[in-house]
Amino acid sequence: MITSLLSLATKRLVRKDLAMTGEVTLTGRILPIGGVKEKTIAARRSEVKTIIFPAANRRDFDELADNVKEGLDVYFVDDYSQIYELAFGSNGHSQS
């Protein structure tokens, strides 16, 4: 939701190949999630190439079979500022 609202407010597009899930505190800290395997498989089925997961879930992702992780760029974050950079950092395009 935060990224969607920032995209709307700043008129900047979010990367199209990006998927993320989780919750963020009011101070920007990223909280751990459940269902890493299911969310990774769902992202692959949707032809997503880049996933952002909470840093606390790195171990869950590392335990997945190689064929589930294959072809994905996965980033592990612990603060929203890291998500902002991944979602908008190299995206200088504005919405029309």
Task: Give the topology, please.
Blueprint: H1 2-10, E1 18-20, E2 23-24, E3 30-31, H2 36-45, E4 50-54, H3 58-62, H4 66-69, E5 73-77, H5 80-88
Parallel strand pairs: 1-4, 4-5
Antiparallel strand pairs: 2-3
Pfam family, one: Lon_C
Protein name: Lon proteolytic domain-containing protein
GO molecular function, one term: ATP-dependent peptidase activity
Quick tags:
96 residues, alpha/beta, Ribosomal Protein S5, domain 2, two-stranded antiparallel ribbon, 5 helices, globular, Ribsml_uS5_D2-typ_fold_subgr, Lon_Prtase, Ribosomal_Su5_D2-typ_SF, Lon proteolytic domain-containing protein
Tell me what you see in this structure.
The protein is globular. A hairpin with a 5-residue loop joins strand 2 and strand 3 (30-31). Mean pLDDT is 91; it is low at 91-96. The relative contact order is 0.25. Helix content is 39%, strand content 18%. The protein has helices spanning 2-10, 36-45, 58-62, 66-69, 80-88; strands at 18-20, 23-24, 30-31, 50-54, 73-77. The longest helix has 10 residues, at 36-45. The strands form 2 sheets. It has a 3-stranded parallel beta sheet, sandwiched between helices. A two-stranded antiparallel ribbon has the order 2-3. The chain has a single domain (2-88), classed as Ribosomal Protein S5, domain 2. It is of the alpha/beta class and 96 residues long.
Briefly say what this structure is.
The chain is an alpha/beta fold and 96 residues long. The chain has helices spanning 2-10, 36-45, 58-62, 66-69, 80-88, and strands at residues 18-20, 23-24, 30-31, 50-54, 73-77.
